[in-house]
Design brief:
single chain; alpha+beta; Bactericidal permeability-increasing protein, domain 2; eight-stranded antiparallel beta sheet; six-stranded antiparallel beta sheet; 7 helices; BPI/LBP_pln; lipid binding; Lipid-bd_serum_glycop_N; Bactericidal_perm-incr_a/b_dom; BPI/LBP family protein
Length: 502
Amino acid sequence: MTPSIVFSLLSLLLVSTCGYVLPLEEGFISGVISDKGLEYAKELLVEKGIGSIEMLQLPEIENSAQVPFVGNAKVVLSDITIKDVQVNSSSVKIGESGVVLVVSGATANLSMRWRYSCSTWLIPIGISDSGNASVKVTGMQVGLTVNLRNQEGSLKLTLLDYGCYVRDLSIKLEGGASWLYQLLVDAFEGNIASAVEDGISEKVKEGMVNLDNLLQSLPKQISLDKTSALNVSFVGNPVLSNSSIAMAINGLFTGKNEVSVPQGYEKGLKISSACGGLPKMIKVSIHEDVFNSASLVYYNCNSSCCSCAQADKMQLIVDELPDQAILNTAEWRFIVPQLYKRYPNDDMQLNISVSSPPVIQVTYQDIDATIFVDITIDVLEDGEVIPVACISVEISASCAVEIVGNNIGSRFRLQKFSTYLKWSKIGKLHMYLIQSLTSSVLKTFILPYLNFKLKRGLPLPIINGFGFQNANILYTQPWIAVCSDVSFIGDYYIGQQSGYVS
């Protein structure tokens, strides 16, 4: 059992579905792996295991045997190579002590070279011979028990038990006087069985050490852009039941230079582990506060960090509209005469900014978003930008969620909006007269701009090399859940760059 075999299985165990209830104290993104997921992981384990054990080279074996009429013979077996592994049955079980993996009834063919030399008082001149041999190993069993624990936000893997057992083997020689030398090699059955058992067991131990090092190196945050990062450190210990593994990560957005996560989120709730009757491998549940932490991070950067590289994430300048005449004071001469009188025939622009963090709420049907926007009307006169009025807009939108690759994306749809005058240097504005302007700006610029930013989506926590397949979205206030199967899409094993997909 090599490092890549075990990593194939445990990579799946790190993504989290159906059949368990996990407290929210354990994280804002959480889930469990189902029986179906465990079965898939086991099959992948066996498939990768066969490919990795094959061609495993065992150490040279040297021994001596007493042969009638010949004397003491020194026999050396070399180039011992495991080939053509076949598995009869396999199982994976979850218990309170850990994850137990067992492959039983396996067979394997071994190839090797043999040579011997001996001399007796009857034959003072030494004699020797060599040839090839094949070995059939039957009744082989490989097993290990591992446990996972949280260690300062990373996963610590502990190998509790491991081993390999060979029940029986048969040896067939080729070359030389094989009818005689078969007696010699038969004496090596125990040595060959021990070599197979020790070789595979050592690979198990080696793989667990390498895998533990890889788990310790998994990132605790994913950098999303120049403004934000996603806290993906593990919180709490994985919870093992008789049919599932449950895990959780922090899951909140933070500013790039922030050490601590935003505070003030309500805890103490529980998520449902049901997948609505869908037989899926995994379920990843995301609390609405993950999205609210994102809106808070970008709002804080926009409103208080003037030197922030992405300070315009929630700000937009509009100087073109489908009806370009609206962006000239001449068009406003009957709506706001004072504006035209003070700035006759001047071009205008709209400075749009988010006035407070958007509020995200998961309902039982979709996601509702309330966005607060200030639209400042600027007059452009002689190269100078002159703010003349500010309109506040409260936007109510619904959000449809979809899985794009390994990201959870979304798209806003306008439900309704309301406006009021926040301040004005050009007298009172009749808000009902500028509803069309506000509607045009919302549909042409604000919502398309937000949807463009949302297109990339939020990276779901899954190990490189695996992808979501046939995913379904479930809404259970205040959680949104992704129930999905998992497909293996590449080799990202020990010695290669690994981590969460972003």
